[in-house]
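#structure-requests
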Amino acid sequence: MVRLCHQLALECEELPRPFHRQVLVPGGRRVSLPYEFLVPCLCIEASYPHHDSPRSKRCPFRDQPAAYGPELWSSVRFHDYSASGKDQMAMVLSASCPLRARATLCWKEAVAEAAPCHDVPNSTASEEEQAYTLDKVDVHPQLCFRVS
């Protein structure tokens, strides 16, 4: 049996549907397994089909940023919980792989999506379990999080 999985803390978690698949590979054959994003925690796990057989796992992209590059950021979902009536900006990241990201504020020159964004000094957000918050902020449409 062969499958792709995401190596998180101790276990290799199933890929989300429709990418979760375990395939029985007859000896000497090849198989193609689809995945959504090439990310550093994407692993290949193989085992025999009988119950409780030992598993072998390889994570070939873990130390290969040139391989996964921009796909890592494409795999991240950003959820903005900032509200204009509050003095707090908040954002949560959801990712296939654990991230060590840093979030700071930047000021966009214009409201347009592609407008340049300039760093706001001393504006690093506090982080707890992929949730980033900044208190005592005047929320404005041109004030944004920059994640790196």
